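In response to the reviewer comment on reproducibility (Comment 2.3), we provide here a single inverse folding case reported in full, input and output, so that an independent group could reproduce the run without further information from us. The structure tokens appear first.
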């Protein structure tokens, strides 16, 4: 499958994906076009607009995507731990971090696994359709809303039909491309701390 071929090799990050999509549009005969992105696509389409502005007629994203430099992240954690470093009004407005940090710790394990061990995780997904479904549908539940996490079935069918959920799982299972998709996290995280995505 195309997805597997594209994403498996080392170094294929959001910037490389932007170049692939531009090449695809060239081959389709479109010199200028609109782009829309969600999730990683928000970042990819933003890079397309940033690095190739004459080609992009308009940009729409449904997820604001930004990468903190290590110093900015450290500064945010420092202020969260020592609020006296800023004025109370600024702290209340910009750093309601206790709840956010708790949520991040509870819900970001997938990001850490995919960014550090995509091949290991991919072996388990390739070997088990039930495992693939459990892994992916848990993310659907956590993204449905905080109340879904306490529900027995994750409130999945309140927002999605069973066909929609199964279709999403099957896109990964049938094509055997979970590892490739997970590796995208690793390739992008590698570049975040070096600043290579920004150059």
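Designed residues, in position order:
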């Amino acid at each position: 499958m195309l997805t597997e071929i594209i994403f498996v090799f080392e170094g294929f990050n959001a910037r490389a994906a932007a170049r692939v999509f531009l090449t695809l549009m060239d081959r389709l005969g479109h010199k200028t076009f609109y782009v829309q992105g969600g999730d990683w696509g928000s970042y990819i389409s933003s890079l397309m607009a940033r690095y190739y502005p004459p080609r992009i007629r308009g940009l729409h994203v449904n997820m604001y995507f930004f990468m903190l430099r290590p110093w900015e992240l450290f500064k945010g954690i420092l202020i969260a731990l020592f609020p006296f470093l800023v004025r109370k009004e600024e702290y209340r407005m910009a750093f309601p971090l206790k709840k956010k940090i708790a949520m991040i710790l509870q819900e970001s394990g997938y990001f850490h696994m995919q960014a550090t061990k995509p091949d290991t995780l991919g072996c388990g997904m390739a070997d088990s359709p039930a495992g693939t479904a459990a892994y992916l549908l848990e993310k659907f539940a956590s993204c449905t809303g905080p109340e879904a996490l306490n529900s027995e079935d994750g409130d999945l069918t309140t927002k999605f039909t069973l066909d929609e959920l199964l279709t999403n799982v099957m896109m990964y299972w049938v094509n055997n491309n979970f590892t490739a998709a997970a590796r995208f996290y690793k390739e992008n995280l590698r570049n975040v701390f070096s600043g290579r995505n920004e150059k």
